[in-house]
């Protein structure tokens, strides 16, 4: 710390290599160690020799430090290009994983609906079989009681022969019907067993789908953290090198001014001594200077005349080129205006549901009454807890954070006068000024319940139907 304070340039040491999180191939981003070692040694040597060097030596050493920093800056620029390429690849992976997560959520919702239907079917079959079983058990009990009555006791019963015959015929007809109902009950039990097997398999698939969805969400979270770490690391490294270079440049300027002052004083003293010795040569010197001045004045006038003629010619050429450029620009502007007008008239509106920021069920559509009774200027989507929210279109983040009663919101500025307002985040994973691609993850829904996401799309400040997508006709109240 002491050496850093004594150094006139105020050299700041750069941080050591920073490891990056897993999820991107376990790669690491490192600074160039030779350049850092050189900068560190320069700081130590400067503190040790600052009291014995002359201003000229100090200036030379500072200029060498500047050359070293420029080389480090070039290395850092190359590293920045490599990191930017990795950021672009990471953004593409995030977009793909978000699409996979959306498909996985849809599949999981379908499996859960199918599971609910199978559970209802199993419950209904079980209730129906229980009723059949109780009826058959009652009939079997009655037959068993009749079978235990001896024939002699049956003849001695108080009923008449006709009643006894009728009971016998009734029992004869009941036995085949009871056998048929028993067979039907066995088949129903078989179907119930098959339904339970199907239900168990469906539960296994649903559990596997949930595990896969959790893995996708974890991977997206790791990649988002990796993206933020790379962005922050690149910006901090460039700022540190730029600040150090600026300090070295200021010190070099101060040293040059000091040396200029010393040199001026030395020249003044030499001039005073030379003046006393050169008085006898003053007349000859003045004559020589006069002739030289006349010669230089003539050369100057000739050079100024040539320069004026050259500037006049260049000005005429520039004015001609400017006129031609303006005419070409005017024609190009008129052609673009006509082309944009024709495109706006002929281009069909994108289909409904082009890309919403999150997957789920639309509960309030554009123009419908919301839960407060007001007319909705966007759409409300009921999403799964913890779902990834993506950018509906490429653009720039112009606002990110809490706003009045809307909670955490994002405003994304797109091309052609479009703005997206997205509210209902549980967490925002981007920042103001950041460029985002179409479908790139920008945050997560709350982690519990069935959260709602509000999505509003505006063009030139006027709300339009988000489900008609970007490129919808201008104007209010489009449904």
Automatic annotation (TrEMBL):
It comes from Azospirillum argentinense. Residues 227-248, 291-359 are annotated as: Disordered. Residues 376-466 form the M23ase beta-sheet core domain. It holds the Pfam family Peptidase_M23. Its cofactor is Zn(2+). Residues 1-50 form the signal peptide. Keywords: Coiled coil, Hydrolase, Metal-binding, Metalloprotease, Protease, Signal, Zinc. Residues 227-239, 291-343 have a biased composition (Basic and acidic residues). This is Peptidoglycan DD-metalloendopeptidase family protein. PANTHER family: CELL DIVISION PROTEIN YTFB, PEPTIDASE-RELATED. SUPFAM superfamilies: Duplicated hybrid motif. Residues 69-146 form a coiled coil. The keyword Chloroplast does not apply.
